[in-house]
Amino acid sequence: MKKAILLTLAAAFILLGAGTFVRADDDTSIVNTSMKMVIEVDNVYNKYGVQISGTEITTNTTTTINSKNETSITVTTQTVSSEWRGGSVKVANIEGTSHTDGTDDSSSDTTFTITYEYTDGTGKLKGASGTSTTTGDSGTGDNDEKIGTYKTSTKDTYTIKNGQALRTKSETTGESYGSNGTKKGDITQTSTTEYKLVAGTWQVSKETTVSKNTGVDGRSDSITRVRTYTRDGNGVITNISQTATGTYIYVHGLSGKKTLGLSNYSAEFAFDEESGWYLKKEHIKWEEGAADEGTADEGDAAAEAEG
After folding, report:
1. pLDDT tens string 249-276
2. Which residues are registered as beta bridge partners of 94?
3. Residue 48: what pLDDT?
4. Beta strands in 67-163 (DSSP E)
5. Helix, strand, coil tally for the chain in percent (to 5)
6. 16 alpha-carbon distance from chain centroid
7. Non-local CB neighbours of 26 within 8 Å, separated by 6+ positions
8. What 3 state SS string does 201-261 have?
9. pLDDT digits over 59-109, tens only?
């Protein structure tokens, strides 16, 4: 199994290793997250010692707890199946599930699949596609009354460059529901990813994500985030920055509407030796009279070589 290819193809489902680290360092109610990873590998060989297939199962358990002993536990299982194609063992598909439970009775379940297509007769990678679905329960209030549910589905589009499957677009649609099952709103998100060729490998250079939530009563929020990655000559990330534009339509009690623009935005990223880069802080200020949402390019992201 070619690890470099595997990590690139499965970028959407990177699983972090075991460790413990603090995230909410500005909160008196400390939130601690611990992660534990288990990897199980089975390889099959023919009588001449040539590997002809393989399966790698990764289970990642993430537990988050605060000083009030409130917890959530997420268990993600990912199975990578490989087969011999055109000279070597290559990834055939990746599939998995993720389940989360919280002490507030909230829960979510996700299933995902990535399938790779090879040309018959040569075994060369010619395509890839991915899908995922999520269903969730928002839990209950202190009186044990239900809050609501939601569901989403995602389709991923890939581009093949120099034998790598690069996810260039991800489109998500979904709906949220109230406690009695009636529809509350629509959920949409479109992400595009751009790449640069660094140290012989196509690496993510920019991600643009457009997220929108629209309520049946007319309220909505739409925000476009553009995340840029800076890398050294070896392709290692040295910095991450993020900008945003957006519009918020607020509906008050008498069905009046106010349109607010995103007047101030900031994002702070930090690096942890064990978990890597992560978004540490985000500030969003909606203000009436602020500029309307800017235009983001939602077309297919391009891959360009870095000279």
Report:
1. 999 877 789 999 999 999 999 999 988 9
2. 80, 114
3. 97
4. 71-85, 88-102, 107-118, 125-137, 148-161
5. 5, 70, 30
6. 13
7. none
8. EEEEEEEEEEEEEEECCCCEEEEEEEEEEEECCCCCEEEEEEEEEEEEEEECCCCCEEEEE
9. 999 999 999 999 999 999 999 999 999 999 999 999 999 999 999 999 999
| CA-derived radius of gyration, the chain | 22
The two beta strands, 51-66 and 31-45, are antiparallel
Q: Which residues pair with 251 in a beta bridge?
A: 257
* Kind of pairing between the strands at 125-137 and 88-102: unpaired
* Token code pair at residue 192: 């595009």
Structure-token pair, residue 40: 């199980």
> What are 47's two structure tokens?
């009588």
All residues at 6 or more sequence positions from 149 whose CB lies less than 8 Å from its CB, including other chains: 135, 136, 137, 138, 176, 177, 181
For 12, the 3-state DSSP assignment is: helix
Question: Residue 155 has what pLDDT?
Answer: 98
- Residue 101 and residue 73: Cα distance in Å, rounded? 5
What tens digit of pLDDT does each residue of 181-226 get?
999 999 999 999 999 999 999 999 999 999 999 999 999 999 999 9
- Exposure string of 237-257, with b = 16+ CB inside 10 Å and e = fewer, is eeebebebbbbbeeeeeeeee
| Residue 185 CA neighbour count, 13 Å, CB half | 12
Mean pLDDT, the chain, rounded, equals 88
